[in-house]
Design goal:
Structural class: mainly alpha
Low-confidence stretches: none
Strand content: 5-15%
Radius of gyration: 16 Å
Number of domains: 1
Largest sheet: 2 strands, antiparallel
Distance between the termini: 49 Å
Order of helices and strands: EEEHHEH
Number of helices: 3
Strand order of the largest sheet: 1-2
Shape: globular
Helix content: 40-55%
Length: 97
């Protein structure tokens, strides 16, 4: 029988997520709104999201985990989002014609 992609020894792992993912998604519109003349493409938004997550300390959690403290502050996420937007804006994935 073939092993499922996110499963080890019959234990499902697909619900273990990086807690910062939803926080980056929540804060991204706020940061993009600061760049009135920039209209990121589909791939630019994905690049901004991935680059921001790569620059933050990962905070993985299991389903049902109780979060007692959040070491990554919103201000840090916003700073990394701004850096990512600036970087992707200077070198977009798709060039406009």
């Amino acid at each position: 029988m073939a092993q499922k992609k996110y499963e080890v020894a019959g234990v499902p792992l697909e619900n273990i997520r990086n807690r910062n993912e939803l926080r980056v998604i929540k804060l991204m519109p706020q940061v993009l709104a600061e760049h009135l003349d920039y209209h990121p493409s589909y791939l630019d938004i994905q690049d901004i999201y991935a680059l921001t997550l790569n620059n933050l300390s990962p905070r993985y959690r299991q389903q049902g985990t109780i979060i007692l403290s959040e070491p990554v502050r919103d201000a840090e996420i916003i700073r990394e989002l701004r850096n990512s937007v600036n970087q992707v804006e200077l070198a977009p994935t798709e060039k406009e014609s």
